[in-house]
Amino acid sequence: MKNADYLEAYRDYLVEEEKSQGTIDSYTTHVKGFLDFVNKDIKKVKRTDLTTYKEHLKQRKLKVSSINSKLVGIKQFIDFLNERFELSINARVKQEKTQKQYTLKDEELLSTADYELLISTIQDAGDIRAKALFEAMYFSGMRISEALQLRVDHVQTGKRIIEDIKGKGGKYRDIYISDKLLTSLRSYLKIRKQPYADTTKLLFVGERGPLSRQTAHNMMKKYAHMANIESTKAHVHNLRHLFGLRLAEQGVPIQDIAKYMGHTSIEVTKIYLEKPQSYYSSLIDQL
């Protein structure tokens, strides 16, 4: 097999693993960049090739996070080849060390005022589905992939704790549903129309079937634009961020925030305890 064949097999594997299209494109692009650089049969790749490639990336002045992302993608590709094709490629390289900065960027975050304006715009447009979807993330901290797993029966039975939704890494986690959110979801369920020739029981649907993540992102961009909210803030994931920030502002303990957010490590949750960049920049001006 040639490198291109191995890369195609890797892409098929990522599809089988139900990785997002963005992840698939990112991983395969990282691998192709490395293969183009070394210009040799992947079976002959050694650790020195990866070390040389890492130095090449550093010379290009890429961010440490970008370099590490590429190295991780290449490592996973090699691991896949060794397991699937038993190639026994012995090539490992350490990632670049970086000091984690738990700092939020104001220009990328939705404020509570932004959110209220967004929902008001959606209400004026009469889009009950979009309102319910965005409120599902705002009132529970769900990821968009989790919100799109909500089912009709979750709403019909009035479940307050949902335990059969897969979170990050394909692991099930508890989702807590408030009265406000349940009311919003029930309002949408009343007008929800079952897609033609589709037996899906997923809650959020369109004419052709279950709502996709891309459609949800497009809805956010559409209504953010209508509400004159900066495009840098127009990401559905920001609704989840806003939930975490509101918990921190209310003094909820970090371990409880981690539980609500579905974090396996409190280190990830610490970002919600930090002040935004504008706080630090204004503070130093006072010295």
Automatic annotation (TrEMBL):
Domain Core-binding (CB): 1-82
InterPro entries on file: CB, DNA_brk_join_enz, Integrase-like_cat_sf, Integrase_catalytic, Integrase_recombinase_N, Integrase_SAM-like_N, Tyrosine_recombinase_XerCD
Transmembrane regions listed in the UniProt entry: none
Single annotated GO MF: DNA binding
Domain of life: Bacteria
GO terms for biological process, alphabetical: DNA integration; DNA recombination
Tyr recombinase domain residues: 105-287
UniProt keyword annotations, A-Z: DNA integration, DNA recombination, DNA-binding, Plasmid
Protein name: Integrase
Lineage of the organism: Bacteria, Bacillati, Bacillota, Bacilli, Bacillales
